[in-house]
Structures are given as C-alpha cells and as structure tokens.
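Query form — protein Cytochrome C

QUESTION: What is the three-dimensional structure of this chain?
INPUT:
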Amino acid sequence: MTQDNANMSDKDAGSGDLFNTAAGWVLFAAALGLGLSILSGKYFHADNPERPETLGYIIEGVEETGSGPAEISFAEALASVTPADGEKAFAKCAACHSVEQGGANGVGPNLYGVMGAKFGHNPSFGYSSAISGAGGNWGWEEMNQWLANPRGYIDGTSMGFAGLSKIEDRAAIALYLNTFGSNIPVPEFVPAAAEEEAEPASDEAAEAGAEEGAAEAEATSEETAETAAS
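ANSWER: The structure tokens for Cytochrome C are given below.
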C-alpha cells in the first residue's frame, strides 16, 4: 500500500512538471510573438504609414487633370483661320442649314445675315421658345459659345447638334458666316508680347513729355526773372 501511494505521488509530480514545462513554452512563444510584432511595426513604420517618394508603377493611359494647355482666346483663333477654312468646317452644318441669301430653311434656319443679328433672326423659321425668348445678338463670343455647346449655352433649344470641341473650327465657321450678309468687325488679336512692349513705350513717352514740360517751365521762369531785373 505504501509503495502504491509512492508510485502515484511520482506520477502526479511527473504530470505537474510536464504541464509547467508546456505552459512555460506557451508563454515564451506568446511573449516572443508580441515582441517580434512590435519590432517589425517599428522597423516597417506600420504604426505611421507614409507615402513613398516614388510610386511603384504608373498606370498607362491615366492623365492628370488640368495638365493640358489652356484654350486660346477666340480673338486669337479668329486671327489663325480664314473664311475658306470655315467653308470646309461648315460641311458639318450644311445638312441642316443653308447660308446663301434667300436659301431655304432646313431642319435649322437659313443663316444668311446671322452674325450681329438678334437671336431668332429669321422670321420664316419656327424657332423654339428657348431661342426666341433668350434675348441677345449673335456676336463673336455668343457664336463661339453656341457652336461649342448649343444646349449648354441656351438651355431648352431643340437643336440636336452636340457642338464643336476645337475653337479653331468655331472661329472659322463664324468668319465664314460673317461673309454672308453681315460683315461685322472682327475682333483684333494683340499678342501678349506686343502689349508688354507697348506699355514701356507709353511710359517713356509720358516721361519725355513731363521732362519737356519742366524744361519749358524753367525757361519761362528765367525769362520772367530777367525781365524783372531789367
């Protein structure tokens, strides 16, 4: 009996040692994992992510917005084209419009004399209420905006044309239309460099005039002093 009790005690002690050893290894593994996690986070900045200075790769075909050149002014576009260019560009419009004096209306009105005329200028054509009620005249900038985006310029128009994206095409057509019964003055385009050169010239002329006026005043003062002395 005493021997059996001793054997059981040895077994219990052996089981306890095994459990303690296993538990110790589990705790050691947990502590090691936590430590490695903290160290890797510090090393790779996982706790404070940063954008790399150079991106890994670029997706082809994606362009940054606003990177293209700004559109030139309408005056510059008008200076760069001719009515002959407008005749070619007007081919897009000829299916719906005629331009000759007395020409028939089509899907759209005859456009003779349209430049400088009021909106809805052709009394023989049935305009939409959006056009007839818009108020205004077909000047250069008005025609530019209309040709670029008819429905965006006059909301509610029945014109189904989407518009012309190139400002040179719009300018050429406007010039072409201007030769048919309108002939309103074409805006003059003055390059920025010419404007900058003109400003110093004006300043120099003003300075020269001021110096000349001062010299004349000084001469007059001297003459007056001499007359008084005599």
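ADDITIONAL NOTE: The helical segments are 2-43, 74-79, 83-89, 129-132, 140-148, 150-153, 167-178, 192-229.
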